[in-house]
Amino acid sequence: MKYESVIGLEVHVELKTKTKIFCGCSTEFGAEPNTHVCPVCLGLPGVLPVLNKEVLHFAVKAGLALHCDILPYSKFDRKNYYYPDLPKNFQTSQFDLPICKGGYVDIEVNGEQRRIHLTRIHMEEDAGKLVHSGGSIDTADSSCVDYNRTGVPLLEIVGEPELRSGEEARAYLEKLRSILQYLGVSDCRLEEGSMRCDANISVRPVGSDKLGTKTELKNINSFSGVQKGIEYEAVRQAQILEEGGTIQQCTRGWDDAKGVTFLQRVKEGDSDYRYFPEPDLIPIEVSPEYIEEVRKELPEMPDARKKRFMDELGLPEYDANLLTLEKQTADYFEDVVKCGVDAKTASNWMLGEFAKLLNENGVGAVDSPVQPAALAELLQLIAKNTISGKIAKKVLPEMWKSGKSANDVVKEQGLVQITDTGALEELVKKIIEANPQSVADYKAGKKKAIGFLVGQIMKETKGRANPGVVNELLTKNLQ
């Protein structure tokens, strides 16, 4: 029997506010444990929370960008459960009246476009963080709790179970991250935990419209982990059903090193959380006028920017898509083009040699030591035939390492391209005399033989000869 996967993602996003959701403690990442805490976020007796207005602002902004309905009346609720990282023994969240309902995210996988609908977006506070000595919770000698993250504002974005593969889930997450980064409401840094994903996964026979029993993969912290974890879990469930077994509703973890999921706990239902309205926070009323004010703040979104890059700059869809996935990359690209560089040339370098340096150094475009004007200067040297593209590939890493301009590197290392035909004529004749077999092959109709001769000349000149001039001279002298 063939099975299909049914996947719904719950994405938790830390909002980029300076202070926590219900108190004035800093949200800065990486501080010493338990230094960004106060009686409110620690849940000490007698304290009262106050909603951070910027959290509501970001929630409405995200809801509008994701095509949600903004509820004019919403409220907070207490989600009750016990775990060491939750000092109040309940989490302040939203249950039946969230700030946003509905909405959708458009994705494209293998050339097929799909619209994935959202159930809701709600505001809530984050829990603390368990720090295990010696690795994971099951192997650690001891565990400590850092409450710095407690009370950091979150948006939980709940998607409908409309995804059908790990690849689609990855595309959905990447698109969601892109939109939220463009809005400026979150850094969405998976490695720092500011974007985390829980995946609800079930399988059913192809053609069935009945949902199977789901399992939940918790807190996956990479796009590849989401894709691999979902694919593994779907195969695991299908094998159990094929063997006549039943799926247990549970929470599972993803072991990236072993490439397997593992049981964590039997899953609770909503009733187990004993939700009730938060008595210490007043309900939230949002006026139509406020919603329209926030709507005016929305920037150009990734899909609109992609279309503009294609329509106005003439970029292929492939280039435009990759360049607009991250706002900082798109901003950097536009700054290079504004310096007078051809858009396609800028795109080729941004997605090629420049991207290679970013990946090797683990940084984004905004943190690159080679700023847009500096990259533009390098590309303009190629356009003027001052240097060749091959030489430019050596100049860029030197610019990155030294912080020097392209002009300075080229002058200091004597890399100016040789375009003088007189200077190259003698070398061309010398190479022709030294390679009679290639000359014979060329005259016999093997036109590719000229490529070998060009290569010999480039080797002699250490890549400084103008390839176009060399080709011209070789063709003339071989006739």
TrEMBL record:
One of its GO terms (biological process) is glutaminyl-tRNAGln biosynthesis via transamidation. The keyword ATP-binding applies. Keywords: ATP-binding, Ligase, Nucleotide-binding, Protein biosynthesis, Transferase. It is an enzyme of class 6 (ligase). InterPro entries: Asn/Gln-tRNA_amidoTrfase_suB/E, Asn/Gln-tRNA_Trfase_suB/E_cat, Asn/Gln_amidotransferase, Asn/Gln_tRNA_amidoTrase-B-like, GatB, GatB_C_1, GatB_Yqey_C_2, Gln_synth/guanido_kin_cat_dom. It comes from the Bacteria. The keyword Amino-acid biosynthesis does not apply. It catalyses: L-glutamyl-tRNA(Gln) + L-glutamine + ATP + H2O = L-glutaminyl-tRNA(Gln) + L-glutamate + ADP + phosphate + H(+); L-aspartyl-tRNA(Asn) + L-glutamine + ATP + H2O = L-asparaginyl-tRNA(Asn) + L-glutamate + ADP + phosphate + 2 H(+). Allows the formation of correctly charged Asn-tRNA(Asn) or Gln-tRNA(Gln) through the transamidation of misacylated Asp-tRNA(Asn) or Glu-tRNA(Gln) in organisms which lack either or both of asparaginyl-tRNA or glutaminyl-tRNA synthetases. The reaction takes place in the presence of glutamine and ATP through an activated phospho-Asp-tRNA(Asn) or phospho-Glu-tRNA(Gln). Belongs to the GatB/GatE family. GatB subfamily. This is Aspartyl/glutamyl-tRNA(Asn/Gln) amidotransferase subunit B. It comes from Megasphaera stantonii. The gene is gatB.
